[in-house]
Design goal:
The chain is of the alpha/beta class. It has two domains: 5-38 and 79-112 and 260-342, FAD/NAD(P)-binding domain (3-Layer(bba) Sandwich), CATH 3.50.50; 120-256, 3-Layer(bba) Sandwich (FAD/NAD(P)-binding domain). Helix content is 33%, strand content 24%. It has helices at 13-25, 48-53, 58-61, 65-68, 120-123, 130-150, 165-185, 209-221, 312-331, 365-394; strands at 5-9, 32-37, 41-43, 62-64, 74-78, 81-85, 90-93, 98-100, 103-106, 110-112, 125-126, 157-161, 193-198, 224-228, 232-235, 239-242, 246-249, 252-255, 259-261, 277-278, 291-293, 298-299, 344-348, 354-358, 361-364. The chain has a five-stranded parallel sheet with strand order 5-2-1-9-21, with helices on one face. The chain has a five-stranded parallel sheet with strand order 11-18-12-13-14. A three-stranded antiparallel sheet has the order 6-7-8, with no helix packed on it. A hairpin with a 5-residue loop joins β23 and β24 (354-358). α1 (13-25) runs parallel beside α9 (312-331). The longest helix has 30 residues, at 365-394. Bound molecules: flavin-adenine dinucleotide. Residues 10-15, 36-39, 45-46, 48-49, 80-81, 107-110, 127, 129, 166, 262, 264, 295-296, 310-313, 315 line the site of flavin-adenine dinucleotide. Residues 5-319 form the FAD/NAD(P)-binding domain. Pfam families: Pyr_redox_2. Its EC number is 1.6.5.-. This is NAD(P)/FAD-dependent oxidoreductase.
Length: 407
């Protein structure tokens, strides 16, 4: 008798942790598990800002997937999914291959939302993947080199659009990273402008007042110009235009104004709501028994009106329950509804400061920065135990991740 085939699409937070949970839950020979991802590395999405600003080594952010899984239990396939045929239970890959499945998990993550603002899609940089973040850093280096030739100040003007959680994290990393580049290129740091553009009246507008004040204080102290209450209207390769005809000459706009579900899933005959795949309480795609979806590409309603936000915290809590429910379906057992427990959120502002809330405690400053490191280390621990934390932080040599920097 052939074994049931479980196929997991996407090795981000949701897909990878589901495959690792399945390794523990499935009995030997009970099912064949295949994990498909377009790269052979898993990247720490929450740390991509560091890749963008050059404040972390590649090996700290991107980890080879074969190093993270048990190859006796999970088969890894490096491939880009092009479509899913729900009726015939098969997945089509770019290049023409087809993989059949009995149970499917779709965990293909997010895409950056540019809201149709003219020029943003074509000219702005995105913190979306390891590759797109690497492209930001390569572009910054190029601007430093070109500034040495033409002294054009727009080359050293770095704009981050969006003063939310990711935006202030990116600003903090630029404030940490750019002074080093200035030293390297022998350019006074005073020549560099780091600008935040935010349509709301303040940065991190959804945080408590004290946190907003603290974040504003730290960013301004680091000479970041905060243009709050200003909408961006257009972006060209040489400038951005804000409301009231304000132009800022810049060659670098980093777009950090929000995400949407991966649009690739929209033409597969699946139900789609608000651009995402709606799932039931047990994380199954609505009205389907053998197709599951978690993380940023799925829509889980926490009550009648509100969906869970697209966060790593949600994907990481969904993954082990999803694995249990895939196994329960396979065994004909009762499925478990998913319950989300919000543990808090912490945004770093460079290495030495952070702001946020964990449980009932408001965090800021150095202690906040320490807690952010603890949160990241906890994820690495779950992924690969203490050995992975040591490898990541102390640079134990291993196969370098190969990546080409393009969007
Ligand atoms: C800069 C930044 C900072 C963040 N900070 C936080 C934070 O502090 N806390 C928090 O909770 N959340 C944070 N988030 C949000 C969090 O990273 C996402 O919610 C999380 O990554 C979602 O996990 P996922 O598994 O759904 O998708 P992803 O992690 O995006 O994984 C999707 C995977 O699918 C792969 N893939 C996509 N398309 C295809 C295809 N066609 N074929 C094959 N493979 C494909 C991708 O390569 C990727 O490996 C942050 C996000 C960003 C960008």
């Amino acid at each position: 008798m052939t074994r049931p085939k479980i196929l997991i699409l996407g090795a981000g937070y949701g897909g990878l942790i589901t495959s690792k949970s399945l390794e523990k839950l499935l009995k030997s020979g009970e099912a064949d598990v295949t994990l498909i991802n377009k790269h052979d590395y898993h990247y720490l999405t929450t740390q991509l800002i560091k890749t963008g600003a050059g404040t972390a080594a590649d090996r700290q952010i991107a980890i080879s997937i074969p190093e993270l899984i048990n190859s006796d239990k999970t088969h890894f396939l490096k491939a880009a999914v092009s479509s899913v045929d729900i009726e015939n239970q098969e997945v089509h890959l770019e290049g023409g291959n087809t993989i059949p499945y009995d149970y499917l998990l779709i965990a293909l993550g997010f895409e950056v939302d540019t809201y149709g603002i003219p020029g943003v899609k074509e000219n702005a940089f995105q913190i979306r993947s390891f590759r797109s973040s690497k492209a930001i850093y390569h572009h910054i280096i190029k601007q430093f080199n070109l500034y040495k030739e033409d002294s054009d100040p727009s080359r050293l003007t770095f704009v981050v659009a969006g003063g939310g959680f990711t935006g202030i994290e990116m600003l903090g990393e630029l404030a940490d990273g750019l002074p080093n580049l200035c030293k390297q290129y022998d350019i006074p740091f005073e020549k560099v402008r780091i600008i935040a553009v935010e349509a709301a009246p303040s940065v991190i507008p959804f945080f408590p007042k004290q946190s907003i004040q603290y974040a504003t204080f730290v960013l301004e102290k680091r000479n970041i110009e905060l243009l709050t209450g200003r909408k961006m209207l257009e972006c060209t390769p040489e400038k951005i235009r804000l409301e009231n005809n304000i132009d800022i000459p810049t060659r670098t706009l980093i777009w950090s104004c929000g995400v949407k579900g991966n649009t690739i899933v929209q033409n597969w005959g699946l139900p789609i709501e608000k651009g995402k795949i709606p799932v039931d309480a047990c994380l199954r795609v609505k009205n389907m028994n053998n197709v599951f979806s978690i993380g940023d590409c799925s829509l889980f309603m926490k009550d009648e009106k509100n969906a869970l936000p697209p966060t790593a915290q949600v994907a990481l809590q969904q993954a082990p329950i999803c694995a249990k429910n895939i196994v329960a379906t396979l065994r004909g057992e009762t499925l478990k509804p998913f319950e989300y427990h919000h543990k808090g959120s912490v945004a770093s502002i460079g290495l030495m400061a952070a702001v946020g809330k964990v449980g009932n405690f408001r965090l800021s400053g150095l202690f906040g920065a320490f807690m952010k490191q603890v949160i990241e280390a906890r994820y690495l621990f779950n992924l690969g135990g203490p050995a992975l934390i040591i490898k990541q932080h102390f640079g134990v040599s291993r196969e370098p991740v190969k990546v080409t920097a393009k969007q």
